[in-house]
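Q: How do we represent a protein-ligand complex in a form that can be generated token by token?
A: Start from the inputs.
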Amino acid sequence: MRKSLAVVAGLATTGLLLTGCGSSGGDNGSTDTDSGASGDKVEVFTWWASGSEKVGLDALVSVFDEQHPDIEFINAAVAGGAGSNAKAALASRLEANDPPDSFQAHAGAELTDYIEAGQLQDLSGFFNDEGLTEVFPESLIERLTVDGKIYSVPSNIHRANVTWVNTDVLESAGIDATKAPASVDAWIADLKKLKDAGVESPLALGTEWTQMQLFETLLIAELGAEGYSGLWDGSTGWDDAGVTTAIDQYGQLLEYVNSDFAGLDWDAATQVLIDGAAGYNVMGDWAEAAFVQAGWTYGQEYTTWPSVGTEGIFDFLADSFTLPVGAPHEDGANAWLKTVSSADGQKAFNQAKGSIPARTDADPADYGDYQKTALQSWAEDTIVSSLAHGAAAKISWSTDISSAIGKFGSDKNADALQSALVDAATKALG
Ligand code: GAL
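Then emit the structure tokens for the protein with beta-D-galactopyranose bound:
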């Protein structure tokens, strides 16, 4: 708690805390007195504060404004990819009994943190009233359900195991950009080829959570879908030889990244690729929106493949929206959740965000070429849960893993990393 408050205080003094047009505290707090006006506004908390992510949120808000013209949308976004600042800011607000009307949270383990803390209202009735159990896939409903209750409304499905490729950079070094190398070792050989050809930082990387995301793709490649999934219930030990290999590979990859990686959020890291200073970037498919914004065409300036060794596996995460206990504007929140779950809302949002709709009634023709590949993989592949994006592990566990990986970025001590991972699992699973 002390840490969360310190983060929020730091954000407030650096002016990072609020990027939206509305206010987040004060008149929207739990002591709201305009109880007759619970439907005149809605304060929505996300981390889609800038760039292509804000474009996605804006697209969803446009549909909300059309569907609910009398409700004022208050944007309480907190900047920082993957919720790196938002989650702490949100924790402080929830702790202080000052919840927003709805907040973004990942489907899966991350939701259970809020549920166990009694911070979320049961939305099962909303799902029934809106017929949502019919329009979302069963596999997703399962990940949203805890003890028979559903606590959030999914807006999209993102894929985390995507490698983005600057085709020009690869082709200039004589590397086939169209297909993934056969193994991580073969990929490392290509990274070396790029370096020898004068590419400054062949693999674009960013801040701690992006490192964790790269590492999770290596775990999936090395352990396979079943072995990787076993890490989250204890059936695969973190002392497994496959984890040791993944750490070794991760250490080798770090030889080829941009030297300023620790300080870059995902969009700045992806920009390194767009600028031609890197050949590859392992990033979730919110990056698709950044390439579209840059005016690039899929299959021409850039392409993608499932991260090396993860073909046939979809490393999944879903953003979803909640109704917190004590939300000051419940009617406004219900209206927001209706838009989030509607076919029009999901289409507008996902077209802009790079993700695919969580609803099963989407028409692939409405989406770009990259997204068509994601729609197909989502339907056919084995699904695993993303670590870096709240699907696999509760927040305290992923925070421990993230810090251990961040530390490895500077000390390169493989033994220390593996024992920190073992300790984190023991702490989380008991
Ligand atoms: C993820 C989130 C995505 C995207 C990404 C980068 O955690 O689910 O929607 O925003 O972070 O910020």
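The two ends are 22 Å apart (CA to CA). Residues 1-36 have pLDDT under 50 and may be disordered.
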